[in-house]
Amino acid sequence: MPRVTIHEKAGYLSDAVFAASDGVVTTFAIVAGSAGASLDVGIVLILGFANLFADGFSMAAGNYLGVKSEIEYEKAKNQETDHEGLPLKHGIITFTAFNISGLIPLIPFLISTRSPFVLSTILVGLTLFVVGFLRTVYTRQRFVKSGLEMFTVGGLAAFVAFIVGYLVKGFLP
Length: 173
What we know:
The protein is mostly helical and 173 residues long. It has one domain. 82% of the residues lie in helices and 0% in strands. The chain is built from six helices and no strands. The chain has helices at 6-36, 41-76, 86-103, 107-110, 116-139, 143-171. Helix 1 (6-36) packs antiparallel against helix 2, helix 1 runs parallel beside helix 3 and helix 5 runs antiparallel to helix 6 (143-171). It comes from Candidatus Woesebacteria bacterium GW2011_GWB1_39_10b. It is found in: Endomembrane system. The chain crosses the membrane at residues 12-35, 41-67, 88-111, 117-138, 150-168. GO terms for molecular function: manganese ion transmembrane transporter activity. One of its GO terms (cellular component) is endomembrane system.
């Protein structure tokens, strides 16, 4: 059984961090854009779950094909490679991280709460900070800086989605 190299471990970490961040941010973008447009909770859930699974699968398939292409490139250059199962592992990690984190913004809309958007916003902020914090387990960076970095980047994306939803609503009949 081949050993997992430090480069492969970093690749798995990269997949997980990127997918978790993208999952929570893109799903929350649906939630924030819907809130900005004052859409019904049912529509938020339909759009959110459609995004969750379609985007999660798309990212996983893209990652699978990207890693497979790297391996095929190595083979074409006559370089030894023993990474046959690697593309599938990367795809599974991407899909799993995306869908677990992407479900978080939808939870408040699945339960009975007065302000699902506010609760979703809080959960997303905490999730982004935690993903940034967990990254430091491997990177050995300062956890507060890493958490705030992830929080800030994701927060800006969510803010843009809210504003777009609000603005587009103004153009609709």
